[in-house]
Structure formats: structure tokens, C-alpha cells
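Q: My labmate handed me this sequence with no annotations at all. I'd like to see what the chain might look like in three dimensions before we decide whether it's worth expressing. Could you predict it?
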Amino acid sequence: MINALSATWRRGWLAGLLATTLLSLLATATHAALPTPGAPDLSARSYVLLDYGTEQVIVDRDADRPVPPASITKLMTAYLAFEAIKSGDVAMDDQVTISEKAWRMGGSRMFIEVGKQVSVEELLQGMIVQSGNDAATALAEHIGGNEESFVAQMNSTAERLGMTETHFENPTGWPAEGHLMSARDIATLLSQLIHEYPDLYKVFRQKSYTYNGIKQYNREKLLFRNEWVDGGKTGHTEEAGYCLATSGAREGMRLIAVVLGTDSDEARNNQAEALLNYGFRHFETVDVRSGGETLASPRVYKGETDETPVGLRQDLSVLVPKKQRDELSVSLKLDGELIAPLNEGDAVGSLVVRLGEQSIAERPVVALSDNPEGGLVKQATDSFWLWWDD
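A: Here is what I predict for the chain of 390 residues:
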């Protein structure tokens, strides 16, 4: 009799849990996924198109191949400058005395003069808008104390951000053996820069800057072609080819495109633009579940209460081809029987999102509240049920 009652109770609980956790995100489709137009045919040596909101890669080629990044390096120099400004270690109105080394830098320049004082704000504009190697070197010396210490910060920050195919030798991107980045790492860096420093990132959309009577225009030409493009960084050396990392936002969706190793300024602009247009035209973001939302309240053994609500720590959205959102389904998988004590935030399983038969996202599911151990009688009773079910 006890066994029959236990089996009936378990079947009822499992049915309720499955009804809650195996719900389709939208109506589960009964037909195959719709075809999606092919990605642009690009000549770049490597490239990646990343959705900023979901961190999903839409399309890529050789995205993990480390190559010379040229002046795209200055994204990291800007990131560390923004970090120092936000922490209060550096101020925009700090006056930087220009060293002879910074003044002598070749390539693209802001045209600062040795011995003169220039503000951090001016140097940032000179580095980002004009791609000044002199400005980047002056900033590195001011923030790091010297260029070598600053480069060490660049490499440790790359490691912290998970940029596994990156190594820096200088703050400018000037050709140097072993100075390498991958397209994926560049996209990661630009994404973090936008996420952590949205106010300071606005300087990247500045179309021109005048210093010392010399007006120079932003080398990021897509700023002048599309109002929805809001900045990035170009790079060019003979070895690196023409490179571009850029970002744009349309209708609540932000994409990041990186193209490396094209054969001309026009090619890098056209190919990055083609990637962005492809992403905006053929993909959309779908909100799956909200952080803190109760996905289920599964049985918890030996606790003060018999159930504990579980859910995601953060909001979850996914990127899908347009007209294929009906192919989405979501399911919750528990790691096993839940046994108290449970603390809020403890991982208990995972939420899996599928597009048709393909898994496109998986996130940890956590307890949304504490459930401490129950009394001795409760623990003894639940120990019996666990033994019986086993």
C-alpha cells in the first residue's frame, strides 16, 4: 500500500514538474527549420560576426587564428585607459608631459610635441579618432609608468577577459614579433569595452578631431555611411593587411563585426558592412526567461519545506534566424534529487534552449531561496523515502 501511494505521488509530482519545465518557449514547430540565406562571401583572412546581447557567434571564419592586428591593438589601450579613469587613478584633465619616445613614433600620428603637456582627454581623442601612435604611447607611459609595465597590464587583462589567442608587445600595434590577436578575441574585447564603459565608448563615434591646428577624420568610414554604426577601430600594416573592428545597433539589437587581412581600405569597410547587414537582416533576438523567475519548484528532501523555487541568475535571450522562433523549445534538467540544506544561488541543474534539434544555449539553474535542514523527524522520514525510491 505504501509503495502504491508513493508511486502515485511521484507520478503526480513528476507530471507537474514536466508540465512546468518542458514547456515550449513558443509553440513547438512540427516542420523542419526554415532555410536561412547564406552568409556573405568574404575575402578577409579571418572574420567574426558576434551578437552583443547573447554573445552568440552568427558567422565566422578562422576566428581563433592569431594574426597581427595592427592598430586594432589600441582597443586594449583604450580599455585600460577607461578602466583607470573609472577607478579614479587617472582623470580626463590630467596633463601628460610628452616624452621623446612618444613624439618620435611613426605611422599615424596626432602630432603632439616633445616636452609639451597634453590632457588625457585630448590623447584619447587623438588615439581613437586619429589612431595616433604618439597618443597611444603617451597614454601608456602615463597610466603604466612606462610602456613595459603598461604592456604587462595589457596581457594580464587579455588573460582575464578570456582572450586566449592574444599577446601584446606594445600599446600601438606597431609590427613586432609575437604581437597577435584573433578575430574572436577582438570581438570579445570590443564587447567588453562597450559593456563596461558605455559613456566613454561614445568617443569612438566622433567623426573628426582637431589638434594643433590639424583636423583629421575618423578612419572608421562606416561611421559616415550608416547612422546606426557607432564606432570601432581600424588597423593596417603590410603584414596585417587592412583590418576593422566595428559595432552597430538597430532596433534594439547590437552586432560586432571584425574583419582581418583584407587587401584595401574599401574592402575592409565593405566586408564589415556586409556582415552587419547580414546579421540585422536575417536574425532576431528572442527573450527566453528572466533572471529570478521561478521555472519550477521541485521536491527537496530533508528540508524545512518540501519544495524550493529554482530559476536563472540572469535574463536569458537567444539569437535565431528570423521566422524560426517557432522552432524554439526550452527544457529544464535537474542534476538529481535535491537534498537540503540548499542555499540561494546553489546550482541544481541547467536550462537548455534548442532550435529544432540543435542546442543553442545552456545556462545553470540555481535555487532562488534558502532551504535549511529540517528537524530530525523530517530528515528521518525523507531518508526513508530516498531509500525506498532507490
